[in-house]
Write a structure and sequence with these properties.
The protein is built from 10 helices and 10 strands. By secondary structure, it is α/β, with parallel strands linked by helices. Helix 5 crosses helix 6 (190-202) and helix 6 (190-202) packs parallel to helix 7. The longest helix has 17 residues, at 220-236. The chain starts with 18 loop residues before the first helix and ends in an 8-residue tail after the last helix.
């Protein structure tokens, strides 16, 4: 189980490098002639299936601050599942627990039945891959769009160079950016950066993709474009999708089911229609204030 973003959490990484420094960055990430130049990839790369996620009684505190309180969630293989709620409710922290950037004080998280916090030796039979699209997009500014997307493939020597270039083209096409391989990241709009980050995640052929506040810093029109990209992926790519967002309209449009968090707890779970019709006063207030009156639908 591998995340391509462990070394790219800051979206401004390498932005101040000189051309000479940029050359060494590329060299360090495998942008040198490959001894593999064919179509073959490592065994298991081509396959991709959605995974199940079961979170059981997860708790996390920082000092006296109890941030996650007995979280229980079950996400089905192939499901698009959104976690919504105001800022500061623990949504992004929960996402970090799923990808092992944080570890709970108690409880456990199972992906396809494997406890994510167990050792590799115990989980030796797990075969799923996950990737995460960070809020900042976390692109390397010293690399082109194509180089960003092919980064993990080249570092891990997953495929030969010919196949990597085809994968880059395929993933860019999926997010509506066909032919943009040679653009510099500094030439991209905020929405394009998000889509490149999604294409980079898709290059891993993941079974699970997670989005942390994908519409952050985007205007409404660009947010709608991004929603259509992710919706299109649901029809073309078989994987499980988990989205953390305070953008309710975005979540309701995309999701099979939605969970709402408040004060570190999950207070409601249901389909978009069930969430809109919820009689929970906290849910109703959140819906009303974030969608300007949608709470009245179906009432």
């Amino acid at each position: 189980m591998t995340s391509p973003d462990k070394n790219a959490k800051d979206g401004n990484f390498s932005s101040s490098l000189s051309p000479f420094g940029a050359f060494w960055t590329k060299l360090a990430h495998g942008f040198t002639p490959s001894i593999m130049d064919g179509e073959n990839c490592q065994i298991g790369y081509e396959g991709s299936d959605g995974v199940s996620i079961h979170i059981e009684n997860l708790n996390k505190s920082f000092g006296d601050h109890h941030v996650l309180k007995n979280i229980n969630l079950a996400i089905e293989p192939g499901e698009t599942f959104s976690i919504i709620g105001p800022s500061g409710t623990g949504k992004s922290l929960l996402l970090k627990h799923i990808v092992k950037l944080e570890q709970g004080d108690s409880g456990r998280i199972l992906i396809n039945g494997h406890d994510v916090n167990e050792t590799e030796a115990i989980n030796k039979n797990r075969s799923f891959r996950y990737s995460m699209v960070f809020q900042s997009s976390a692109l390397f500014n010293s690399l082109t769009v194509g180089e960003n997307i092919g980064l993990w493939l080249r570092e891990k020597r997953i495929c030969g160079e010919t196949r990597i270039r085809r994968i880059i083209q395929e993933k860019l096409s999926l997010v509506g950016l066909a032919g943009k391989e040679e653009l510099r990241t500094s030439e991209l709009s905020g929405g394009m950066r998000k889509r490149v980050a999604i294409a980079r995640s898709l290059a891993m052929n993941p079974d699970l993709i997670l989005y942390d506040e994908p519409t952050a810093e985007l205007d409404p029109v660009t947010s709608d474009e991004l929603a259509r990209v992710i919706m299109s992926l649901k029809e073309k790519v078989k994987l499980t999708t988990v989205i953390v967002s305070h953008d309710l309209n975005f979540a309701l449009y995309l999701s099979d089911r939605v969970a709402m968090m408040h004060d570190g707890e999950v207070i409601a779970i249901g389909t978009p229609d069930e969430i809109k019709k919820s009689q929970n006063p906290i849910v109703r207030n959140f819906i009303y204030t974030t969608t300007k009156g949608i709470q009245g639908e179906g009432a």
